[in-house]
């Protein structure tokens, strides 16, 4: 899968949620996410622009755990990249396996995320511990799909929502690493 994603800093969640409602976006869920990032013993993911994480999500009494690999960004305007994800049952055992074969924990990123859907877009309002408010808009495409139209439509949606600057290509992990 190719994930076409654009992130922007926003002023506050309340105003953006109101704009999303006026647009006709549907709020689908709210969850807490904890991402534990790892670095490879072979290559430095910060230099190759890759990511490996274990994500634990909690929504009400439901917990889900995923391993996600994200490849390097493939364009200069967004966070368009290959993404491979699979569900697992035990984050601690998985982290233990990663560490046993040489991967090192980098840091945890924790956030409360509200999801919205609008047309073919997935929109999230992200309250990340240690960062200002952000909004992400993404479209998932099949491998080999042309991502330029998807990217253009994401920027057009941001403009409809009154956002024309504050775009960020770096991950929340990178943003936190640059602060602390």
Structural commentary:
This protein is of the alpha+beta class. It has one domain: Hypothetical Protein Pfu-838710-001 (Beta Barrel). The protein has helices at residues 13-23, 45-48, 91-100, 148-160, 172-179; strands at residues 2-9, 26-39, 51-59, 62-70, 81-88, 104-118, 121-128, 134-141, 167-168. Strands 1-5-4-3-2-6-7-8 form an eight-stranded antiparallel beta barrel, surrounded by four helices.
Count the domains. Answer: 1
Helix run count: 5
Helix-and-strand structural type: alpha+beta
Name the shape in a single word.
Answer: globular
Gap from first CA to last CA? 32 Å
CATH superfamily: Hypothetical Protein Pfu-838710-001
Q: Strand arrangement, largest sheet?
A: 1-5-4-3-2-6-7-8
User: H/E series, N to C?
Assistant: EHEHEEEHEEEHEH
Strand content is over 45%
Mean pLDDT: 94
Briefly, what CATH class?
Answer: Mainly Beta
CATH fold-level name: Hypothetical Protein Pfu-838710-001
